[in-house]
């Protein structure tokens, strides 16, 4: 047969999987199961401290010393820094704030405003109080809190400052008559010392010098009547102006204070 029919009758042999033949002589039975073998656990070794180099040792030493210093600072109080208020002995109360328990006072020797802790809540404005170094005599105030700034005072304290200053001048009129009004002279060819007072010009200053004459003024009352001025008010305004402006020159507060006994 040939052709298409012949091709259909051709038998194609199937693939037969060849199994490996076991040689009975080489055969050995498998080992019976013996259970799960325990694996030894790893034991963690204790951590060993790393060796420190010289820099780390120094840093560690500095930290220890810093801690000790901190403890010493807590135990020992820092010494208080000296202030210009340490030289003041007497002052005039400008304000007594009951809310903050702080007294603002004007020093008599330098015309400086200082803040003090209040001991007596009934201290009144204008009262003369002791602020010296003797703590036993400080019945109205305690320790010094620092300088007081004029722009941080209350409106009532700012308005009372010229009045308290004038009160101080009037109570010590003998000193200011002798040290200023009776000896004031020309500061230069164009300015007299009287012109340092607010509202006093060159013409008024020459008039005051002429009225003063050689005998001088005996009191503020006689000075006011003869020259038609309020000398205590003018001098207190000058002091307040010097408190407001630290660069104002010349400064009568430095020339006329402290008040001599």
Report on the structure:
- This protein has 261 residues and is an alpha+beta fold.
- Among the domains are: 84-156, OB fold (Dihydrolipoamide Acetyltransferase, E2P); 172-256, DNA polymerase, domain 1, CATH 1.10.150.
- Helices cover 35% and strands 11% of the residues.
- It contains eight helices and five strands.
- It has helices at residues 4-8, 54-75, 155-171, 173-181, 202-212, 220-227, 231-244, 252-256; strands at 90-97, 102-107, 113-118, 128-130, 141-147.
- It has a five-stranded antiparallel β-sheet, with helices on one face.
- The mean pLDDT is 84.
Q: Which residues form runs of ≥5 with pLDDT under 50?
A: none
- CATH homologous superfamily classification of the domain at 172-256: AF1531-like domain
Order of helices and strands: HHEEEEEHHHHHH
Name the overall outline. Answer: elongated
Oligomer: single chain
| Architecture per CATH nomenclature, i.e. the level-2 architecture of the domain at 172-256 | Orthogonal Bundle
Let me know the average pLDDT.
84
- Structural Rg: 51 Å
Structural class by SSE content = alpha+beta
CATH secondary-structure class of the domain at 172-256: Mainly Alpha
Strand line-up across the major sheet: 4-1-2-3-5
Give the N-to-C terminal Cα separation: 162 Å
Helix amount: 25-40%
Main β sheet profile: 5 strands, antiparallel
Outline the secondary-structure elements.
Blueprint: H1 4-8, H2 54-75, E1 90-97, E2 102-107, E3 113-118, E4 128-130, E5 141-147, H3 155-171, H4 173-181, H5 202-212, H6 220-227, H7 231-244, H8 252-256
Antiparallel strand pairs: 1-2, 1-4, 2-3, 3-5
Helix pairs in contact: 3-7
């Amino acid at each position: 047969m040939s052709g298409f029919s012949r091709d259909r009758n051709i038998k194609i042999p199937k693939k037969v999987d060849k199994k490996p033949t076991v040689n009975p002589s080489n055969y050995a039975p498998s080992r019976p199961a013996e259970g799960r073998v325990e694996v030894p656990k790893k034991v963690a070794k204790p951590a060993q401290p790393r060796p420190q180099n010289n820099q780390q040792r120094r840093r560690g030493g500095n930290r220890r010393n810093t801690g000790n210093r901190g403890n010493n600072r807590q135990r020992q109080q820092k010494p208080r820094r000296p202030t210009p208020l340490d030289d003041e002995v007497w002052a005039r109360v400008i304000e007594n704030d009951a809310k903050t328990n702080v007294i603002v006072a004007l020093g008599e020797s330098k015309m400086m405003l200082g803040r003090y802790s209040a001991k007596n809540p009934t201290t009144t404005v204008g009262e003369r109080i002791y602020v010296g170094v003797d703590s036993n005599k400080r019945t109205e105030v305690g320790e010094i809190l620092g300088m007081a700034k004029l722009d941080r005072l209350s409106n009532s304290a700012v308005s009372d400052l010229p009045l308290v200053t004038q009160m101080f001048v009037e109570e010590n009129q003998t000193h200011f008559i002798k040290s200023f009004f009776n000896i004031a002279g020309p500061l230069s060819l164009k300015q007299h010392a009287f012109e340092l007072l607010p509202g006093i010009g060159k013409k008024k200053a020459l008039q005051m010098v002429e009225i003063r004459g050689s005998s001088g003024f005996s009191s503020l009352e006689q000075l006011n009547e003869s020259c038609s001025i309020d000398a205590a008010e003018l001098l207190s305004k000058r002091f307040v102006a010097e408190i407001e402006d630290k660069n104002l020159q010349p400064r009568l507060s430095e020339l006329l204070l402290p008040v001599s006994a």
